[in-house]
Amino acid sequence: MHILLVEDDDRVAAALRPALHRHGMTTTRLDRGREAVEHLAGVDVVLLDLGLPDADGVDVCRAIREASDVPVIVVTARGDVEDRIVGLHSGADDYVVKPYDVGELVARIHAVQRRRGPEAAEQQGDRVVTTPDGVAIDLGRHTVTVDGAEVTLTRKEFQVLALLASARGTVCTRTRIVAEVWGRSWPGANRTLDVHVATLRTKLGRPELVQTVRGVGYRLGTA
Hints:
Layout: E1 2-6, H1 10-22, E2 26-30, E3 45-48, H2 57-67, E4 72-76, H3 81-89, E5 94-97, H4 102-114, H5 118-125, E6 128-130, E7 135-138, E8 143-146, E9 149-151, H6 155-166, E10 172-173, H7 174-182, H8 189-204, E11 210-213, E12 217-220
Parallel strand pairs: 1-2, 1-3, 3-4, 4-5
Antiparallel strand pairs: 6-7, 7-8, 8-9, 10-12, 11-12
């Protein structure tokens, strides 16, 4: 996923970009708002600050929305209700107030990207991910087969597997998996995730299919 970061604060950008990269994203950073519309090609999500030196971020958001349907998340220190309302009415898909938790921001990025539109949803729904060792994950029908035989998974087990399958072999961090599958985090979240992964490996009979990336998360071994 490619992120366009429109942020004039060098310290904020210097801290955020490596964090996004660790979550498997690439970034382009702009410190001016008026250039944003010219850099939308190939962008999956825009992170837009409102306090920009050359233009009001609300006007930039409106310009982006007129030019593209790319998801926009406003990331700003302006936390008043009125500011939130104006930002959302200007075309933003979500609104995050600084300071924020990076894990939550990443979850919001994935959430707005999933809601891009019916065409993206249909493309996602029609996909069947297959592995060389005979596992087929039908993302549209929510079914999994191993060597042609269907395997029964719980809803959460399938959601974990589907998320890893959709990542196409890239690493999904623990934070992302917990946020997207359970919608929240809690002190025992990592242990719960580990149990679900262990159960998946047992049910599928493919211990090496879901691979542990120590200190980071999991990925699907498709090769």
